[in-house]
Amino acid sequence: MHVVVIGSGFGGLAAAIRLRQQGHDVTIVEKRDKPGGRAYVYEQDGFTFDGGPTIITAPWLLAELFERSDRRLSDYVQLVPIDPFYNIRFEDGSVFRYTGNRAEVIEQIRRFAPDDVPGYLRFADATERIFDAGMALIDTPFDRMRDMLRVLPDLVRLRADRSVASFVNRYITDPRLRQVFSFHPLLVGGNPFQSTSIYALIHTLEQQWGVWFAMGGTGALVRALVALFVELGGTLHLNAEAAEIVCDRTERRATGVRLANGVAIAADAVVSNGDVAFTYTHLVPAAMRKTNTDRRYDRMRYSMSLFVLYFGTDRRYEDIAHHEILMGPRYEALLSDIFTEKRLASDFSLYLHRPTATDPSLAPPGCDSWYVLSPVPHLGGRTDWRTEAKPYRDRIVQYLEDRYLPDLSKHIVTEHMIHPLHFRDTLNSHLGSAFSVEPILTQSAWFRPHNRSEDIPNLYFAGAGTHPGAGIPGVLSSGKIVAEMIGGA
Prior knowledge:
The chain is α/β, with parallel strands linked by helices and 489 residues long. It has 3 domains: 2-36 and 55-80 and 215-300 and 439-487, 3-Layer(bba) Sandwich (FAD/NAD(P)-binding domain), CATH 3.50.50; 83-210, no CATH class; 305-425, Guanine Nucleotide Dissociation Inhibitor, domain 2. It is built from 16 helices and 19 strands. The chain has helices at 10-21, 59-67, 102-112, 117-135, 145-157, 164-169, 175-180, 201-209, 218-231, 276-283, 294-299, 332-339, 385-403, 408-411, 420-425, 472-487; strands at 2-6, 25-29, 41-44, 47-50, 79-81, 86-89, 95-98, 212-214, 235-237, 242-248, 253-259, 264-266, 269-272, 305-313, 323-326, 350-353, 368-376, 412-418, 459-461. It has a 7-stranded mixed β-sheet with strand order 7-6-15-16-17-14-18. A hairpin with a 5-residue loop joins strand 6 and strand 7. Helix 1 runs parallel beside helix 9, helix 1 (10-21) packs parallel to helix 16 (472-487) and helix 4 (117-135) packs across helix 8. The chain is globular.
């Protein structure tokens, strides 16, 4: 069987590798000049910037891809543990050093609010129960209603109807600690006050398996996966944008992919690792979509977008860790502005990434490579990023300079920025969403766009917008689901 995979993000690569391991002929077509999808790499002036995901959890999901071909991940890329996982900084000057050591975490809690230690222990026990149930579903397909009915008792028992924030708030009272233990849904595009409490399992995932970094950056991990795929006999075409999924309307099947340059590639099955809403509304003829109509995707809720500034400095800031979470003056109200009001606020909370804290080779000697990320509304709001991007960039740089990185503006020697228009126009993401379909309960599992199309039985989806969702573990698992579906077809 010949399978064409649209997109070379982690989900597409995972699906393609597994399909080759099953013996299928596999061709990946990638719009951009490098593989990786959102994990694109920018290189300029001697600095290397990972364009997308930088937090690696569940390393066994990566190792498994290589082990299935009697290879070792460590022969292709070196993963190293990060400690601390994050420094979480608050505007009152307090810093929570978030690690994988239970005793250290408890000591940090004791410094903030001693009375919350017993509550944290109960919270940690509860997240372990959620982890045991939730991780069992991560590579389970949900393309039939009976799949959902089978797990419904567990979801009811775990109170999946509650948000992560309300779940955390049952156990912890200090406002800062509530932020420490509830911010994780933002890493997969969700609002902690709206995302299902199932995402609280991320706490246990990190505590049990750690947070990792690929030496050379996330791009080195992409290169490792591409190398494995090519060694297995797969074909990768870059600068090859998919313009249409060609379908036989009589048999209601996909027959191939037509590229923007007019070249047609025949296929027995098609896997889209592109944005699910874009794929259906732009690549699949409307006459083929009785279920996945434009109206269906217009009515869905989508994750926030991102403003990201990549910059290099001609000095090092040794007091800053690899991962820093910089909490602003507001939490729930800011998230409401982003997710509900679709309004660009004057304040922000930021994720500051300094990979040269772990791997100095990503910058020239004596320099640091960075990115700072701000969650912002997707393009369903009224922000004109053609005029707002530069002032927003300046506010963020000034904030960092005033509070965390002295004289920053004097030391920036190179920079690049992306914002919602990049996600829409370059990454083909509906509304410029950075994580596709928002991870709320009514858009999870069976309610999420399915890994196999209801309309076209040989069209499959891997990536953030389908089950199980965004984040490296989620998209790798979606690739596994798709490969097993095709392997059993």
